[in-house]
Design goal:
mainly beta; 11 strands
Protein backbone atom coordinates (compact mmCIF):
# COMPACT_ATOMS: atom_id res chain seq x y z
CA UNK A 1 0.00 0.00 0.00
CA UNK A 2 1.09 3.54 -0.79
CA UNK A 3 -0.50 6.68 0.61
CA UNK A 4 -0.14 9.99 -1.19
CA UNK A 5 -0.87 13.46 0.16
CA UNK A 6 -0.69 16.53 -2.07
CA UNK A 7 -0.25 20.15 -1.07
CA UNK A 8 0.52 23.52 -2.61
CA UNK A 9 -2.52 24.31 -4.68
CA UNK A 10 -4.21 27.68 -4.64
CA UNK A 11 -5.55 30.65 -6.55
CA UNK A 12 -3.08 32.64 -8.63
CA UNK A 13 -3.12 35.09 -11.49
CA UNK A 14 -2.07 34.21 -15.01
CA UNK A 15 1.69 34.26 -15.37
CA UNK A 16 2.33 33.30 -11.77
CA UNK A 17 4.03 30.19 -10.40
CA UNK A 18 3.03 27.46 -7.97
CA UNK A 19 4.83 24.51 -6.52
CA UNK A 20 2.90 21.34 -5.74
CA UNK A 21 4.26 18.68 -3.43
CA UNK A 22 3.29 15.09 -2.81
CA UNK A 23 4.47 13.06 0.15
CA UNK A 24 4.36 9.31 -0.24
CA UNK A 25 4.26 6.80 2.59
CA UNK A 26 4.02 3.05 2.73
CA UNK A 27 5.66 0.66 0.29
CA UNK A 28 7.56 3.15 -1.79
CA UNK A 29 10.82 2.61 -3.56
CA UNK A 30 13.02 4.43 -6.03
CA UNK A 31 11.89 2.14 -8.85
CA UNK A 32 8.28 3.28 -8.61
CA UNK A 33 7.14 5.98 -11.00
CA UNK A 34 5.55 9.05 -9.47
CA UNK A 35 3.29 11.18 -11.62
CA UNK A 36 1.09 14.23 -11.70
CA UNK A 37 -2.26 14.21 -13.45
CA UNK A 38 -4.91 16.89 -13.63
CA UNK A 39 -8.61 17.04 -14.19
CA UNK A 40 -10.47 20.15 -15.24
CA UNK A 41 -14.25 20.48 -14.79
CA UNK A 42 -16.09 18.40 -17.37
CA UNK A 43 -12.91 16.80 -18.69
CA UNK A 44 -11.09 13.53 -18.18
CA UNK A 45 -7.99 13.04 -16.12
CA UNK A 46 -4.92 13.91 -18.15
CA UNK A 47 -1.25 13.18 -17.70
CA UNK A 48 1.01 16.09 -16.78
CA UNK A 49 4.44 14.67 -15.90
CA UNK A 50 6.16 11.72 -14.27
CA UNK A 51 9.51 10.71 -12.86
CA UNK A 52 11.19 7.47 -11.91
CA UNK A 53 13.38 7.64 -8.87
CA UNK A 54 15.85 4.91 -9.81
CA UNK A 55 17.30 6.78 -12.77
CA UNK A 56 15.65 10.21 -12.70
CA UNK A 57 14.01 9.72 -16.06
CA UNK A 58 11.10 12.05 -16.71
CA UNK A 59 8.30 12.51 -19.17
CA UNK A 60 6.11 15.55 -19.78
CA UNK A 61 2.89 16.26 -21.59
CA UNK A 62 3.48 18.51 -24.56
CA UNK A 63 1.34 21.29 -23.14
CA UNK A 64 3.61 21.74 -20.09
CA UNK A 65 7.06 21.34 -21.62
CA UNK A 66 9.22 24.29 -20.76
CA UNK A 67 6.81 25.52 -18.08
CA UNK A 68 6.56 22.71 -15.53
CA UNK A 69 9.35 20.77 -13.88
CA UNK A 70 8.94 17.57 -11.92
CA UNK A 71 11.46 16.56 -9.30
CA UNK A 72 11.78 13.87 -6.68
CA UNK A 73 13.52 13.47 -3.34
CA UNK A 74 13.85 9.75 -2.73
CA UNK A 75 15.07 10.18 0.83
CA UNK A 76 12.01 12.24 1.75
CA UNK A 77 9.64 10.24 -0.48
CA UNK A 78 8.48 13.50 -2.00
CA UNK A 79 7.72 14.47 -5.57
CA UNK A 80 7.23 18.10 -6.55
CA UNK A 81 5.84 19.91 -9.54
CA UNK A 82 7.12 23.41 -10.17
CA UNK A 83 4.63 25.22 -12.37
CA UNK A 84 5.63 28.47 -14.06
CA UNK A 85 3.85 30.77 -16.49
CA UNK A 86 0.47 29.46 -15.45
CA UNK A 87 -2.54 30.26 -17.57
CA UNK A 88 -6.28 29.80 -17.20
CA UNK A 89 -6.15 26.48 -19.07
CA UNK A 90 -4.05 25.07 -16.24
CA UNK A 91 -6.99 25.38 -13.85
CA UNK A 92 -7.76 21.90 -12.58
CA UNK A 93 -7.51 19.54 -9.67
CA UNK A 94 -4.00 18.13 -9.66
CA UNK A 95 -3.46 14.57 -8.50
CA UNK A 96 -0.33 12.77 -7.44
CA UNK A 97 -0.12 9.13 -8.49
CA UNK A 98 2.24 6.21 -8.02
CA UNK A 99 2.77 3.08 -10.04
CA UNK A 100 3.73 2.72 -13.66
CA UNK A 101 7.16 1.21 -13.87
CA UNK A 102 8.44 3.22 -16.81
CA UNK A 103 7.87 6.87 -17.61
CA UNK A 104 6.36 6.07 -20.99
CA UNK A 105 3.28 4.80 -19.17
CA UNK A 106 1.12 7.90 -19.06
CA UNK A 107 -2.40 6.46 -18.98
CA UNK A 108 -4.13 6.73 -15.59
CA UNK A 109 -4.78 3.00 -15.54
CA UNK A 110 -1.09 2.25 -15.01
CA UNK A 111 -1.15 4.06 -11.67
CA UNK A 112 -2.52 2.12 -8.73
CA UNK A 113 -2.29 4.74 -6.01
CA UNK A 114 -3.75 8.23 -5.99
CA UNK A 115 -3.85 11.21 -3.71
CA UNK A 116 -6.97 13.22 -2.96
CA UNK A 117 -5.98 16.05 -5.25
CA UNK A 118 -5.23 19.73 -4.79
CA UNK A 119 -7.07 22.54 -6.55
CA UNK A 120 -5.16 24.94 -8.78
CA UNK A 121 -7.09 27.93 -10.06
CA UNK A 122 -5.54 30.46 -12.42
CA UNK A 123 -7.42 33.70 -13.00
CA UNK A 124 -6.96 35.48 -16.30
Amino acid sequence: QVQLVESGGGLVQAGASLRLSCVASGRTGSSIVMAWFRQAPGKGREFVANIRGSDGSTNYADFVKGRFTISRDNEKNTVSLQMNSLNAEDTAVYYCAAGGGVVTRTAPGWYHYWGQGTQVTVSS
